[in-house]
Write a structure and sequence with these properties.
This protein has seven helices and nine strands, in the order βββαββαααβαβαββα. The protein has 240 residues and is of the alpha/beta class. The longest helix has 18 residues. Bound molecules: adenosine-5'-diphosphate and magnesium ion (MG).
């Protein structure tokens, strides 16, 4: 098991998460869908160790990386130096971290943009730099909190396809928080729907298409069916 959570609960000024238990296999993609304020980001932050749960536990041997909705790039650094930052903090020698950063940029198709500053990059390119920065530590679990929400539909679709390739080439497991049911259907092996106040897992849906999934999948009847299934699962969800 890549990750197992047991009865995670969390309260701020009100109870937010109640008894969240799930497990996921290495190299699989698990998505969380649910209304705003349901505690999706809080759950990811707990798994990343950025927040402490009140009850429950989780266990993982995974090397984790976090990708936020905002690319959070440092404007005065080149793409290469932004990607290399996690290794700079860990005091890797310059040659080694630059080599790994270039590799990581190549994974996301941005090797040629290594010398550019964030100002010179499009929204989609910035997100890919942010992804490359998360990949530089060789994670086997990526936590993605609405990573493509700010991008246009075409760029989002393209990056979804890139993400799947990365997953397949490097066997990276992912937990994805998204509001987009097309994205969830395209990427996920399994979708957990959160709902209620405090939020619980209200639906647990498996999505199985034959792999590799490619762009053509989106125009098939089985894809439309999966989207429909997610749509009705969300429609029945209680507000948080
Ligand atoms: N650090 C915090 N302090 C107080 N309340 C918080 C904090 N983080 C999140 N919350 C509250 O917890 C609830 C869930 O937030 P969040 O996890 O961001 O939901 P989601 O990502 O599903 O939209 C919201 O009501 C939010 O206001
Ligand atoms: Mg959130």
């Amino acid at each position: 098991m890549l990750l197992q959570t047991n009865g995670i609960s969390k309260k701020f000024d009100r109870p937010v998460l109640n008894d969240i238990s799930f497990s996921m296999k290495a190299g699989s993609i698990l998505s969380f869908l649910g209304p705003s304020g349901c505690g999706k980001s809080t759950l990811l932050r707990i798994i990343a160790g950025l927040e402490k749960q009140d009850h429950g536990s989780f266990s993982t041997k995974a090397n984790l990386s976090f990708v936020f909705q905002d690319p959070l790039l440092l404007s005065w650094r080149t793409a290469l130096d932004n990607v290399a930052l996690p290794l700079e903090i860990q005091k890797f020698p310059r040659d080694e971290r630059n080599h790994k950063a270039l590799n990581s940029l190549e994974w996301v198709g941005l090797k040629d943009a290594a010398h550019l500053h964030p100002d010179a990059l499009s929204g989609g390119m910035k997100m890919r730099v942010s992804l490359a920065r998360a990949l530089i530590t060789n994670p086997d679990l990526l936590l993605l909190d609405e990573p493509f929400a700010a991008l246009d539909e075409l760029t989002r679709s393209y990056l979804n396809e890139e993400l799947l390739k990365l997953k397949e080439q490097h066997n990276i497991g992912m937990i994805l928080v998204t509001h987009n049911i097309f994205e969830a259907a395209f990427l996920s092996d399994r979708v957990l729907v959160l709902g209620g106040a405090p939020a619980q897992i209200t639906k647990d849906l498996t999505i199985s298409f034959k792999s590799p999934r490619t762009a053509q999948l989106r125009s098939t009847a089985e894809f439309a069916e999966a989207v429909g299934k997610l749509q009705s699962a969300l429609r029945g969800t209680i507000q948080c």
